[in-house]
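If your schedule permits, I should be very grateful for your opinion on a structural question. Kindly check, if you would, that the fold set down in the tokens agrees with what the sequence suggests. Thank you for your consideration; the sequence and its tokens are set out here:
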Amino acid sequence: MTDKINGLHHVTMLASGASANNAFYTEALGLRRVKTTVNFDAPDVYHLYFGDELGRPGTVMTSFPFPNAARGRRGTGEASLTAFAVPVGSLPAWEERLAPLGPTTREIVLGDERLLIEGPDGESLALVEVAQDARTPWTENGVGVEMGIRGFHSVTLTLQDIGATADLLRLMGYREEGREGPVTRMRLAQGNGAQIVDLHEDPTVRPALQSAGSVHHIAFSVADKATQAEVRRELAAAGFQATPSIDRDYFWAIYFRSPGGVLFEIATDEPGFTRDEAAEVLGTALKLPQQHAHLHDRLVQHLEPLEGLS
């Protein structure tokens, strides 16, 4: 499947409150809320999507904000860091912008200068300076083009043993690009700009406990359902048990557990977030899956009010 995976599609995290989550990703990071919907399996919980203008694959951070959820515990078997790409030279401006929200740390990993930050639930995030990233940032939330987030740079998986997961990523078209200490970088040769997965091996750390601030799953992009079906067949031939394709309204998804314990998803780029909203009003209305449409009035009363939601 070396030419089928395009890079990351989205990253989905768990949160403890919708308003704080929404404010951080839109007001602090300057992303656009491109969809306001609910968890398919728990419709009394929002599913919020934040990304570029249209929520293009490779730009979208999503969240399930379970009210008052306890903090998760960091450890192995999880996606431990989500990194966003920003322009070269923009980290000082980001340090100044984010200083009121808490401490930040600068570091260089595998040649990339990055700023480590925490989200409202303690989620580990980074802003990484990337040269010549052609993706266009969303600039309507007070973050200009000179520093705006282009999309994902990478995710880091912390694992007790990276071997089998590295083999899986090779099956998916990734190749080892470099190593630095316990970190091995895997990269696709070409794709949507979000083409890096870093594998951090640490056999001494206990397993993660998933809750608020934890990444629930990471999704990889494929063009369409036909390509997804080919990937599913190749995964099955390699011994992985993926779910059937599930309609998530804005993409079709299959899920399987990676060898290190992280939940992987393969998501289609179609139909996208404009299937039920015009581009200029994305994210401003509560959109419900068909099976939950009858709950609309009750959910409007129950769900936490959000800024910009009509």
